[in-house]
Specification:
462 residues, 14 helices, seven-stranded mixed beta sheet, binds flavin-adenine dinucleotide, globular
């Protein structure tokens, strides 16, 4: 492709900014990043509180965050944040140690069985499901894998046939049952459901295992995790500052028209002409949102195939509160509440995060899910009150809410559409209307999967 083409990138989150970086590294310098907000980072949002930054969005990474590492190297920064640690409470607020056999003598047989199943899953993923962990979903529903190997620094292209991969379209609980590893859900649920990615009876195994591949899940178990002192937003602020063309903030895109091999973008009242456009912002948002975000199909001259496919996308309603507590009510550490990670407890507090070890003069952030495929959605205010009540039950009542948001979170499709080849169809449309689709839906809703997808998109098409 001609290195001088004019490329518009919609969205200044991890996917959009890293697309800019990888394009620039490949010699494409004529790109423009349009961001609707007055800041970059998207769901990496790290506001200030008493001189330090806390996390309203993304918190952590793992050592296999290769694309995030590329960004760190590009900017000369590193993961220098506070060490993560956590304990567990039951739904009544009692501290528990679910994985400590000596303290759970009656549970020893189940714990031993679970350990065996974890080992078994590790082996199955290496053999029966070879190719499961590549970034993105190309070929999976057809029993193929296609992508770039993470095994070496060169990230060489890899591909192959593996009909077993079709199982990944099953809801994760059915996938586990099929493989006789149901108990492993006790481990995978912590960094999945409580992190807002939905319940195992509704989310296809592909999403669960591409994000929580075996190694990544073990890193969570061993708390071998990265954080950033200035917050995850800092990664993307730094990247933005190092790009030749930093994102244009407060860009309101009114219209995108694609005709005669050109892309016309009306932004803040003016028409701009481009050759290609990369969309990292939401493709489809099924309902009206209070934050004014809309899907691409609402401001693009969306074609029939785009509308038909993107209307299958759903997303999680994941709510975050940042609360102050009185010093005597401050939790001594972060807590997981496993009892609340089931659909029957929709809207309840699943995890709360204490970031700094050395002070009680900080906010605690809380996390709850309000949506499950088979239940009625819990309204925002009801969920908010449930979480505040749960904090009392946990013996860590809040004295004030200082920040809150309900996130457009983890766009995904469900099993039937996954199995029907949703990803193969959308991947087949890449470039068709001079348009490329990237961001969370194309891989998974975390910083690294989205940045890695942008890297591969640039590698494949530019
Ligand atoms: C509470 C929470 C906790 C999380 N924890 C982690 C974690 O620990 N680790 C991890 O790796 N990930 C975590 N994530 C997920 C991670 O933040 C996201 O997956 C990642 O930010 C996705 O990057 P993205 O660029 O695809 O999308 P986003 O971050 O959503 O960025 C999209 C950008 O597009 C902009 N935009 C939207 N519409 C338009 C438009 N019409 N025009 C122009 N711009 C537009 C948005 O303002 C935004 O800046 C968490 C997220 C949340 C909310």
């Amino acid at each position: 492709m001609d290195k001088n083409i004019r490329i518009c990138i919609v969205g200044g989150g991890p996917a959009g900014l890293s697309a800019g970086m990888y394009l620039e590294q490949k010699g494409y310098e004529n790109y423009t990043i349009l961001e609707r907000l007055d800041r970059v980072g998207g769901k990496c949002w790290s506001p200030h509180y008493n001189g330090r930054r806390y996390e309203m969005g993304a918190i952590m990474g793992v050592p296999s965050y290769y694309a995030v590492h590329d960004v760190e190297e590009f900017c000369g920064i590193t993961h220098d944040g506070p060490k993560l640690n956590r304990n567990y409470k039951d739904g009544r607020g009692n501290v528990i140690e679910p994985f400590e056999p000596k303290k759970n003598i009656l549970k020893i047989p189940r714990l031993l069985k679970m350990k065996k199943q974890v080992k078994k899953l590790g082996e199955l993923l290496e053999t029966k499901y070879k190719g499961y962990d590549l970034n993105g979903h190309r070929g999976v529903s057809e029993g193929r894998y296609e992508g770039f190997s993470q095994a070496s620094a060169k990230r060489e292209p890899v591909s192959g046939e593996n009909p077993n991969l079709k199982d990944l379209s099953l809801p994760f609980n059915e996938f586990c049952k099929l493989n006789g590893v149901e108990l492993i859900q006790d481990i995978w649920i912590g960094p999945f459901t409580s992190f807002g990615y939905g319940y195992f009876d509704e989310i296809p195994a592909a999403y669960v295992l591409k994000y929580l591949d075996f190694q990544t899940c073990m890193n969570f178990v061993k708390i071998n995790l990265w954080t950033w002192k200035e917050g995850t937003q800092y990664i993307w602020e730094q990247l933005n500052a190092h790009l030749k063309n930093p994102a244009r903030l407060n860009s309101h895109i009114e219209k995108v028209e694609r005709k005669d091999g050109k892309v016309y973008v009306t932004v803040n009242g003016k028409v701009e002409e481009y050759d290609k456009i990369i969309v990292t912002a939401p493709l489809y948002i099924p309902n009206k949102r209070a934050d004014g975000q809309v899907g691409m199909v609402d401001y693009f001259d969306a074609r029939e195939d785009e509308r038909a496919l993107f209307s299958k996308i759903d997303y999680e309603r994941y709510d975050v509160l940042a609360v102050e507590t009185k010093p005597e009510d401050h939790p001594e550490i972060s807590y997981y509440v496993f009892d609340n990670m089931v659909p029957a407890k929709l809207g309840h507090l699943m995890v709360y995060y204490r970031r700094w070890k050395d002070t009680k003069d900080q906010v605690i952030t809380t996390y709850a899910l309000r949506k499950h495929l088979k239940s009625a959605e819990v309204p925002y205010d009801v969920c908010r009150q449930m979480v505040l009540d749960d904090l009392k039950t946990m013996h860590n009542p809040a004295s004030k809410v200082v920040n809150e948001w309900s996130v457009y979170y983890f766009p995904h499709v469900f099993s039937k559409d996954y199995a029907d080849g949703w990803y193969e169809k959308v991947e087949g449309m890449q470039g068709k209307y001079d348009t490329y689709y990237a961001g969370e839906i194309m891989s998974f809703g975390d910083m690294d999967e989205t940045a890695e997808y942008s890297r591969e998109l640039v590698e494949r098409f530019f």
